[in-house]
Amino acid sequence: MITFKLKLLFLNSEMKKNKFISISEAMNQGSGEVSIRGWVYRERKSNKFAFIVVRDSSDIIQCVFSKADLPEKVWEDAKMLSIESSLKLTGDIKKEPRAPSGYELLVKDLEVVQFAEPFPITKDFSPEFLLDKRHLWIRSRKLTSVFKIKHTVIGAIHKFFRDKGYYEFPPPIFQPMMCEGGSTLFQVKYFNDITYLSQSWQLYAEAMIFALEKVYDVSPTFRAEKSKTSRHLSEFWMAEMEAAWMDLDEVVQAGKDEVKFIVQEVIKNNKNELEILKRDISQLRPAAEKEYPTITYTKALKILEEKENMKVHWGKDLRTIEEERLMEHFDTPVAIIEYPKEVMAFYKMEKKLRPGIKKTDAPGPVALCFDMLAPSGYGEIIGGSQRDTDINELIKYLKKENEDPKKYDWYLDLRRYGSVPHSGYGLGVERIVAWICGLDNIKDAIAFPRTMLRKSP
After folding, report:
1. Can you give the pLDDT at residue 354?
2. Can you tell me the distance from the alpha carbon of 277 to that of 435, in angstroms, rounded to the nearest whole number?
3. Which of 350, 443, 429, 437 is nearest to 396 (CA)?
């Protein structure tokens, strides 16, 4: 019995001794012996010392190997370490202001898990090469920081809506009709028929609000837009919401509140990642602290004409250049409401001049809709509207888009049985991540981007 207890104590002691902790946990400990594991991030060697920067998912740390203080086998293995070799280390940690992350590990023991082959990514490679090697480039500190911030963003979206009593409703990805224009549908062979990849959950969410009243989701979305810009993806994630009894003013306010909450959560939880990305937090603070303005589309055109000398014909949608020039006059996101009805999707309700709704400043019919633009040239991050509840209007605009209303009969049923005012919007997850992170290209806001020209790796 005594022998068994001694063996158990020995095993527990060994387990404790070899317990691995993350690099950030080791740095928080600050001193004493620690065991970590990870991958070689940088390496520099001489005849007597090897300085190996090791990374894991939490941080990086400089690890010092001294030939004089190590067994020959450990020193020989250390000399052979190459970029991305995987390893386990034990040593004494101490503060070292000259080290990359302010701490240094004086190595006492090394176990190499795998000696990596020569890593194909060094310096000064083209963006296309890095996209070809995306499966390896996602290990970079830049992209790792982006994905950590994206994790915060998605978590904030779930928290925001759940705390406000919304139910999560996952939509179908295969959908038989368009929602955002037939020209951007991805067609899919479906047994002996065809269907399409989802452009939005919206039509199905409109059905669900008659059961759950307030719903949201974060799900993949597909748009076959023939665009090569730095702001477009063919596959992206959208956070959408839909609510019964909600009008345009209320849905615009919901969008403002959500974006503000997301920015606040990132500033609170991701200061280290923002610093790695060299993102100036002072440029984000207005979006976390100030109220966001609302202006009409017509007012936006006046600002462009008066302050930017840009004459935009009323009735045209705003282009990227016009959005960028407009947002030079704001340091927070801005909600632009009441776009021309004729250029809007069929489901966006036209603003009627009736009691309870103020007169429009526009020269033509406008929709009860809004876009939210981000500052610093990042463009649209939210698009939403109050939904049309008039069957005849819906049918009219479906026909204008060369759509067969019979295909939408189930959707029109929602207006036949207990119809109520309702509204919703979609937030582009990668677009808000690109803005918050200060990225040059939205491709870096998603792990494996899909575009008009890229479907792999």
Report:
1. 59
2. 12
3. 350
Tell me the per-residue pLDDT of 400-449, one tens digit each, with 9 for 90 and over.
999 999 999 999 999 999 999 999 999 999 999 999 999 999 999 999 99
Which amino acid does the sequence have at 58? S
230: left (phi over 0), alpha (psi -120 to 50) or beta: alpha
Q: Quick check: helix, strand or coil at residue 130?
A: helix
Query: pLDDT for 104-142, tens place per residue?
Result: 999 999 999 999 999 999 888 899 999 999 999 999 999
Question: Which residue has better confidence, 184 or 81?
Answer: 81
User: What average pLDDT does this structure show over 233-242?
Assistant: 97
- Whether the CB-CB separation of 68 and 104 falls below 8 Å is answered with no
In terms of domains, do 256 and 289 share one?
yes
Model confidence at 4: pLDDT above 70: no
For the chain, give the mean pLDDT: 93
Shared-domain flag, residues 363 and 410: yes
- Is 455 domain-assigned? no
Same-domain check for residues 104 and 139: no
Strand order of the β-sheet with 174-175 is 174-175, 193-197, 187-190
Alpha-carbon gap, residue 436 to 445, rounded angstroms = 10
Residue 155 sits in a domain of what CATH number?
3.30.930.10
Rounded distance between C-alpha atoms, residue 260 and residue 429, angstroms? 14
At residue 361, the pLDDT reads 76
Residue where one domain finishes, among candidates 86, 114, 142: 114
> Which amino acid belongs to residue 36?
I
Per DSSP bridges, beta strands 334-337 and 294-296 are parallel
Contact 429, 236 (CB under 8 A): yes
Beta strands in 227-320 (DSSP E): 235-244, 294-296
Q: Which tokens sit at 297?
A: 């589309």
Q: Cα-flanking dihedrals φ and ψ of residue 425, to 5°?
A: -155, 165
State the CB neighbour count (10 A cutoff) for residue 131: 19
| pTM, full prediction | 0.93
The Cα-based distances of 437 to 124, 144, 405 in angstroms read: 22, 12, 42
- Identify the domain containing residue 90 by its residue range: 20-114
**Residue 356 has what pLDDT?**
57
In a domain, 422, yes or no: yes
**Which among 66, 384, 22, 433 is positioned nearest to 231, based on CA atoms?**
433
Task: Answer positive or negative: Cα dihedral of 352, 357, 359, 364.
Answer: negative
Read off φ and ψ for residue 91, nearest 5 degrees.
-175, -175
Longest dimension (CA), the chain: 93
Are residues 334 and 252 part of one domain?
yes
In angstroms, rounded to a whole number, what is the distance separating the alpha carbons of residues 54 and 419?
A: 60
Note the pLDDT of residue 11. Answer: 41
Residue 353 has pLDDT above 90, yes or no: no
